[in-house]
Automatic annotation (TrEMBL):
Family listed: Belongs to the peptidase A1 family.
Domain of life: Eukaryota
Name the UniProt record assigns to this protein: Peptidase A1 domain-containing protein
Key words of the record: Signal
GO molecular function (one): aspartic-type endopeptidase activity
Residue stretches making up the Peptidase A1 domain: 65-414
InterPro entries: Aspartic_peptidase_A1, Pepsin-like_dom, PEPTIDASE_A1, Peptidase_aspartic_dom_sf
Annotated Gene3D superfamilies: Acid Proteases
GO biological process: proteolysis
Source organism of the structure: Tetrapyrgos nigripes
Pfam family of the protein (one): Asp
Signal peptide residue numbers: 1-21
């Protein structure tokens, strides 16, 4: 397939004399065999694994952002996932050491099983000896996914839990521990090349959705993120499942010119006020998950909008989907989120998605969808109200400072925080929509 060419190390920039910091190009891919029109949407935590610290692979069948990690000298293409923590790969790893500790991860649909191993890891220019990871011996229903590198906070690591020791620390913790001069930051930019986006476009996703990840530095040209407001990375109040979480401003969503009133579903929240939603950032999740009332406020009043509980019953083209709005593809939905008083507009192209169906009719669905009841108000899922995934992150450059979330860090290390920088200019995203959906006029 054209476009899936290697584009590994982009540039090496040195922040401080001894600090290592590297930028890595990511490759956007759509999983093989998925319907181009409506990729299979898996969001419910059927296996309940979300509550065990390993977020389900919600977007199997859909877009994912991948990069290579090198284990024992061999390259593995893995999905980057800020919603989970551990590393797993499927395949033979030269020189790997089997620790004989079995582990399994169950996804919404699919399973990985194997033993925890250690091997030398090279990732983004860093080399880590004896990196612990799950070497898959058995996988089921995972399509062509060959591995995931979790970039979430290590508090939720299953490998640490099973090894009962810091020998199980995930890759980013190991990188920060062994490179003390490197700032404890991870950034990633998921973007789009709107000039090649149309409803029936056939451009490879790797060209359509350029993406980059950095450790220890920021992307050149986007240094302004360093002076963005520092949003607190919340300590999960239930203490079970730590994610990258922060607070949205009170009533901090504006849709089509209307401010939406919000209230948290978390009982007795220890962070924020009752009208502040708790937001998780998850790069492994393409469809943002919002409270149903917010989704209704965004899409419900659109002329012709229809809420569909069971896609299969509505049309064969919608099979496999549930709880979404069907809306006219030419309706320009405008939504902005507000964090620390800053506005983060979302491209209308990230608010509806679709294409021609088998009957030739263009059909579009809501990209922002109601979060499942099994996640909200469930302590095992973490104290969250909503999940902002790719549909938001393609509009916003994100920096995560791990602070003292790194395992073994001392108490004088600062609290973790998150910074966001909007990359979606309102005039530009409007024009992108006009070009892609309205034939340029
Ligand atoms: C990973 O490396 C292989 C070569 O070892 C290359 O063909 C592939 O395109 C790379 N994938 C990514 C996502 O960079
Ligand atoms: C989740 O964790 C609980 C308790 O640690 C365990 O009993 C259960 O089997 C786990 N579920 C999965 C799917 O791993
Ligand atoms: C967008 O895609 C077009 C067509 O493939 C290409 O010529 C252009 O360089 C791309 N722009 C960016 C910013 O990647
Ligand atoms: C949020 O709540 C937790 C748990 O109650 C508490 O430890 C923490 O200090 C609060 N603030 C932040 C920024 O996490
Ligand atoms: C969205 O914003 C554009 C201008 O940026 C405007 O033309 C369009 O009518 C807006 N859509 C709605 C539903 O308000």
């Amino acid at each position: 397939m054209k476009g899936l060419t290697p584009s590994f190390l982009l540039s090496t920039s040195v922040l401080f004399s001894v600090a290592k910091a590297v930028t890595l190009d990511l490759i956007g891919k759509r999983k093989q065999g998925s319907s181009l029109l409506f990729p299979r949407r898996l969001k419910r935590d059927d296996a309940g694994v979300f509550g065990n610290g390993s977020v389900a692979l919600h977007n199997l069948g859909d877009t994912s952002y991948q990069c290579n990690v090198t284990l024992g000298g061999k390259d593995f293409e893995v999905i980057i996932d800020t919603g989970s923590v551990d590393l797993w790969v499927d395949g033979d790893v030269p020189g790997t050491k089997d620790l004989g500790v079995p582990m399994s991860i169950s996804f919404a649909k699919g399973t990985v099983q194997g033993n925890i191993n250690t091997a030398q890891l090279q990732f983004d220019g860093f080399t880590i000896e004896n990196q612990a990871y799950l070497r898959a011996e058995f996988t089921q229903d995972l399509g062509d996914v060959n591995g995931i590198i979790g970039l979430g906070p290590s508090g939720a690591s299953q490998v640490i839990g099973l090894l009962q020791s810091s020998a199980g620390d995930p890759p980013l913790d190991r990188i920060f521990q062994s490179n003390p001069a490197t700032p404890n930051i991870l950034t990633f930019l998921l973007s789009r090349n709107a000039s090649i986006e149309t409803l029936s476009g056939t451009t490879p996703l790797s060209e359509q959705y350029p993406a980059q990840l950095t450790i220890g530095t920021t992307i050149s040209g986007l240094e302004a993120i360093n002076s963005a407001p520092k949003l607190p990375a919340l300590v999960d109040q239930f203490g079970i499942n730590q994610h990258w979480l922060t607070l949205l401003d009170a009533d901090g969503i504006v849709a089509n010119g209307k401010k939406i009133s919000t209230s948290t579903a978390i009982r007795n929240p220890t962070n924020g006020t009752l009208d502040q939603l708790h937001v998780m950032f998850d790069s492994g999740f393409s469809f943002p998950q919002l409270p149903k009332a917010v989704v209704d406020a965004i899409y419900g009043d659109i002329p012709g909008a229809e809420f569909i509980k069971d896609g299969a019953a509505a049309s064969p083209d919608l099979a496999g989907l549930e709880n979404f709005y069907k809306i006219p593809c030419d309706y320009e939905v405008n939504v902005s989120f507000f964090f620390a008083g800053q506005e983060f507009p979302v491209s209308p192209l990230d608010l509806s998605l679709g294409g021609p169906t088998s009957t030739g009719e263009d059909v579009c669905i809501s990209v922002y969808q109601p979060i499942d009841d099994s996640l909200v108000g469930n302590a095992a899922s973490g104290a969250l109200d909503m999940i902002l995934g790719m549909g938001f992150l393609r509009n916003t450059y994100i920096l995560i400072n791990f602070g003292d979330f790194v395992d073994g860090s001392t108490s004088n290390v600062a609290d973790p925080y998150i910074q966001l920088l909007s990359i979606s200019d309102k005039a530009k995203i409007h024009q992108d929509f006009v070009n892609a959906r309205l034939g340029g006029e």
